[in-house]
Amino acid sequence: MAKNRWLAAVSLLALLAAGQAAAQTRAPAGQGAQPPAQPPVLMTADQLDHDRERNVVTAYGNVEIAQEGRVLNADKVIYDMNADRLFAYGHVVLLEASGEVMFSEQAEVTGDLRTGVAEHIRILMTNDARVAANVGRRTGGVVTEMEQASYTACQPCKDNPNRPLLWEITADQVIHDQQSHDIVFYDAWFNVLGWPVAYTPWFSTPDPTVKQRSGLMPVTLGHNNDIGYTVTIPYYWAISPQEDLTVTTRFSDQQLPILSFEHRKVFSFGQMETDASITEDETGDVRGHIRGKGKFNINETYRGGYEIGLTSDGTYLKRYEFVNAGMPFLTNRPYLEGFYSERSYALAESFYFQGQRSTDIQGDIPVVGPLLTYSYVGQPGSAFGGRFGLDANFVQLSRTDSYDSRRAYVRPYWTMPYTSSRGDIYTVTLAAPAVLEQFNDYNNTDGTTGRILPEATLDWRYPFVRLGNANQQVIEPIVQAVLAPHWTGNTKNPDAITFDFTDTSLFQLSHFTGYDGYSSGPRLNYGLKYSLNGWKNGSVSALVGQSYRIYADDGLSAGLDQNLSDVVGRLAVSPSPNIDFYYRFLLDKDDFALLRSEATATFGPSLLRFSADYSFIDQSVSTVNNETRDEVTFGISSAITQRWSLAAFTRHDLTSGGGLLYNGGSVTYDDECFTMSLSFLNQRTSDTDTTQGQTFMARLVFKTLGETPVKFN
C-alpha cells in the first residue's frame, strides 16, 4: 500500500502540473504574454485512475492535495484537467494557511484550491469560533459567502449535542473577507439558548486575525451616587500597529459629560502611555486629570523616562471612579539612569507629589530635585581578600510653606566574608558614612550641619544543619556587633518619618530607611533563625531577635527608643500548597505585650478557600498620626464547578468607634464562549465630595464579539 501510495503521488503531481500547463497555453488568440506559472501542487492518494480519453484523474483513499499552504483532504477526488476543476467527496476538509478549517461532505474547487462551492459546510476559525451554513462559496481564496448560516463560539454539549447553544448568531447571509479581515452578517438574529432576543439587518465584526481595529467599543450603563445615572461610550482609534487612542464620553443626568482619553505608543527604543480627562461638575467647576509614564533606551548605557500624575483636586479620581483612585498621592518623576558596568549604577531624578487625602497640606509636601544616587560594588576578593564599595546620594528639598534643605551623603566601605573550618560564617565591614546638610528657615533658623560616623561591623552566623529522610532543618544563631561613635544630631529626617523596627531591619547597619537619619553608637544585634524544608512537602521558617545599644538618644523610636529594644520576629508556615500562614510581631521587652501584630493566612483548596488578614499597631509605636490601628479582613472564594465561582470579603476597623469599612462579593460564570459576573461593593467611607454607598456591576462577555458591562451604585 505504501508503494502504491508513493507511485500515485508521483503520477498525480506530474499530471496536475501538465494539466495546469495545458490550461495556461490555451490563451485567446492575439494575446502575447502568458499568465504566470501556478505554484506547484502536491497530491497523494492510496489509488489512482487516469481516463486519458476524457483527461480525468480520479484519486481514492486518504486523498491529500496541498498548494501554497492550503491542504485539501477527502475520501475521493476527481480532477478534470481540461476544466482545471476538482470534485471532492466524503469527509472533505480544507485547511487554510491562516489555520482556518472548513468541513463538508462534498465540494467543487479549482485546481489552485482558491475558488469553489460546497454544501452543508462547517468552518472552525482560529479562535475556536464556529460557522455553519447550507451553502458556501469561495472566491479568489479570500472571500467566503455563506447562505443560511450561524456563528458561535460555544461548543455543543457533549452529553446532549442537540441542546440549544448558550448563544449564536443566525443570518440569511454571512460574508467572510480575509483580505479586509471582516465577518459581515445580513438579516441576523442574536439567539440565547435557542431563543431569538435581538435582530439587526446588518452586523460586522473583525475576524480572529485582527489584533486591533478602529471602532466603537462596548457601552457601559451604570449609576453613581455622586453623578447619577451614566452611559459610557468609548471609541477606539487604531492609529498604527504601534499606536492607538481611546476616546471615551461618559454622559450623566446630573452634570455635563466627562471626556477622557487614553493614548499608547511603542517605539523601537521605548514606550509611552497617557490618560487624561476633563469635565464641568454641577457647581460649574472645571475638573480633570492627567496621568502618564514613559521609558526610553537612549543607548547601551543610559535609559530615561518619566511619570506624570496631576488632578484638579484630591477627590476627582475617586468621585468619577477612575483606575487607581485610592492612591494617597500622585507622583511626577522625570529620571535618567546609567548602567556603566555590571557593578556601577547612577540615577538622576526629581519628584513632585500631589496629595490626594483631605488632610494633606500641599505646601508641606516637598518638591524633590535633583535627587542623585550612585552605587559601586567592587569585584569579590579584589581588595585584601574582600571588596570595596561606594554609595553616594545628593538631594534638594523645596517647600512653599515649610523649610528647604539640601543634603549630601557618601559611604565608602570595605567588606570581607570568611568561613571557618568549623562552618561558622564571619563578615567584617568597615565603613565611613558622611552626611552634610544645609537648611533654610527650619524653626526660623538657617544652618549647616555635618557628621562622619566611621563604623566597624562583625557579623557572625553559625548554621546547624540536620538532615532527615525527607527534610532538612537549620538552626542559625546570628550576632552582629557594631562599633561606632555616638551622635545626637538626628533632628531633621524627611527620608524616614514613618520609621518601623521590624525583623527585616534588625540586622541592617542603619535602622533608618533614608539617609538623613543614621544609627550611631556601639550596639549589638542578635537573633535566632530556624527553617524546615521538605516537611510533608511544605516548609517552616522563623526568626526572633533584639537589639542592644549603649546610647538611646539618637532619635530612634517605635521599639528602639531605649537601650534594650523590643523583640521582633516572624513566622511562616506552609505545610501544603493549600495552607499558607505568615505572622510578624513586635513584643514589649518588659511584659511581652503585643505592640505590632500582622498576620496573613489562606487555607483550603480551590473548591472552598478562606483568607484572613489582621493588622494591629499600638499607638506607642505608630508613626502615622500616633493612632492605634486595629483592622481585620476576611475573604472566601469557591470554584463550585469548572465554570461557576463565588467570592465574598469584608473589612472591619476594630478600634473604639470603628466598624465596617467595606464588604462585597461576586459570582462568576465562565466557559469557552461566554463570561458573566455580578459583583457588589458596600463602601462605608467617604471624603469631601464623595459619598459612601453601594455599587453593583454586571459584566457580560460574548467571547469573540465583545462585552456589555453594567454598573450601578
Q: Could you please describe the fold and organization of this structure?
A:
This protein has 713 residues and is mainly β. The chain has 2 helices and 43 strands. The strands form 2 sheets. The chain has a 27-stranded mixed barrel. The two termini are 72 Å apart. The model is unreliable at 1-33 and 709-713 (pLDDT under 50).
Rounded radius of gyration (Å): 36 Å
- Overall outline: elongated
N- to C-terminal separation? 72 Å
How confident is the prediction overall: mean pLDDT? 85
Please sum up the structure shown.
With 713 residues, the chain is mainly β. The longest helix is centred in the N-terminal third of the chain and has 24 residues, at 2-25.
Layout of secondary structure:
Elements: H1 2-25, E1 42-44, E2 47-51, E3 56-67, E4 70-80, E5 85-95, E6 101-110, E7 116-124, E8 130-139, E9 143-152, E10 167-177, E11 182-192, E12 195-206, E13 215-216, E14 220-224, E15 228-240, E16 243-252, E17 258-267, E18 270-280, E19 286-297, E20 302-311, H2 316-319, E21 329-341, E22 344-355, E23 367-377, E24 387-398, E25 404-419, E26 425-431, E27 434-442, E28 445-452, E29 455-461, E30 464-467, E31 472-483, E32 523-535, E33 538-549, E34 567-576, E35 579-587, E36 594-603, E37 609-617, E38 629-638, E39 644-653, E40 659-670, E41 674-683, E42 693-702, E43 706-712
Parallel strand pairs: 14-43
Antiparallel strand pairs: 1-3, 2-3, 3-4, 4-5, 5-6, 6-7, 7-8, 8-9, 9-10, 10-11, 11-12, 13-15, 14-15, 15-16, 16-17, 17-18, 18-19, 19-20, 20-21, 21-22, 22-23, 23-24, 24-25, 25-26, 25-27, 26-29, 27-28, 29-31, 30-31, 31-32, 32-33, 33-34, 34-35, 35-36, 36-37, 37-38, 38-39, 39-40, 40-41, 41-42, ...
